[in-house]
Design a protein that fits this description.
Layout (H helix, E strand, L loop, with lengths): L21 H11 L6 H14 L6
Helix pairs in contact: 1-2
């Protein structure tokens, strides 16, 4: 019986780049600072902003 293992190697991501228009980024930044929006929407907005800026989402 042979066991196969997968090794993760650091390298370029396979995820597509996220390009946001200025008005989209502005709307996401406003949402990320909201104190009345649902928490999941605020968190998602922060993740999208970071991802568009090239920050890892893991």
């Amino acid at each position: 019986m042979q066991l196969l293992t997968e090794v993760a190697i650091a390298g370029k991501t396979k995820r597509a780049a996220l390009v946001l228009a200025e008005d989209q980024k502005k709307m996401l930044k406003e949402l990320s600072r909201s104190r009345t929006a649902p928490a999941r929407e605020i968190e998602r907005a922060k993740i999208l902003i970071d991802y568009a800026d090239g920050i890892s989402i893991t």
